[in-house]
User: Fold this.
Amino acid sequence: DVQLVESGGGLVQAGGSLRLSCAASGFNFDSYAIGWYRQAPGKQREGISCISSDGHRYYSDSVKGRFTISRDNAKNTVYLQMNSLKPEDTAVYYCYSSLSWGQGTQVTVSS
Assistant:
């Protein structure tokens, strides 16, 4: 089965950092782009970052310069390093590929 499992969420103060992980299984990970969405309560889902199979990266304006996406194909894992976190970054963060979505991990940033 295709699976994407997020981890690394939690509660952090504004200005702090978290690193999210997305562990993939059940498909040829090397060949797929992997991305991150987030959804805050009462708001639309927002695509924030994506990394292609050959390492090209995309960031939304809302996270550019603060978040870094990377992938480790040996571990079938994509990471999202989140620095300088703001209260408006509070959301459930989901990783996805064209094949599947993860279950999400909660990130809460206190002011």
In short: The radius of gyration is 13 Å. The chain has no helices and ten strands.
